[in-house]
Amino acid sequence: MSTLSLQNLQGxxxxxxxxxxxxxxxxxxxxxxxxxxxxxxTDTFSAAxxxxxxDITGMTVSITPKKxxxxxxxxxxxxxxxxxxxxKVRLLRNSTTISVGDTSGSKQSATxxxxxxxxxxxxxxxxxxxxxxxxxxxSITYKLQVNNDNxxxxxxxxxxxxxxxxxxxRYISVITAMEVAV
Length: 182
Hints:
This protein has a single domain, classed as Jelly Rolls (Sandwich). Helix content is 0%, strand content 40%. The chain is elongated, with a radius of gyration of 21 Å.
């Protein structure tokens, strides 16, 4: 049996440009999604106002890229609440902070933040996306941390007062990692 190696492959236009690959073989076209990993957090979490970056329990997702040249598209949705507090959330790849704003004076760099609610039975939803270039085929863990440096507790997936009535609610927060072929 012979092996054919080539730089470019194109299907026959009359056949609809379909290229058939034998079982067990893989072809990644640029821009295609290679794999998707997701973590959905359905329970609640709280962060005391201690002024330090704290892992948000359960808001991690691991992915092992199949190609070193792949990009990882991260989607984050965080539902949170605070009263008299200004928490900030940041994204990390393993232990390295990524996808944060520039530093300026004593301000903290973050990915998203300020879940300040006037009504203690409300929440707010923040969504963020980021394309990472880890240049690795080793397992990577993406996680979210919160820094709540004011005087009140920050809550995830629930309101501050968490009232048990028809206006109260419980929510989900999600972190998704998609490997994109380059």
